[in-house]
Write the structure tokens for this entry.
Amino acid sequence: MNIKHQKKLPISCICSIYIKTNLNQLILAIDSLLMQKYIPNEIIIILDGKVNKGIEDFLAFLIKGNSFFKILRLSKNRGLGVALRFGLEICRNDIIARFDADDINLQDRLKKQYDL
């Protein structure tokens, strides 16, 4: 997938994951963001404590050559609210789209939110 040529919107997408996050669902959720005509210019993923090796490998793959991915880590599981608050502190855009690791985003979600 060549995301360098897609139009980027000034939107921060933020997601928190934890030890029980399903890798396949996470891949689908991120793919659904990146397969849009307009993609976010920033995707922040917060690791709320430890995650499994498959997810660690996937995240390493994502950030390689993709500077708009930011991975934040909490040393232990603190809960969704704390994790998201931690991520919100580094969002650089005024518009923030939160997504869960098992969300499938509609193809025009970000453009619609941006236009509103």
About this structure: The two ends are 28 Å apart (CA to CA).
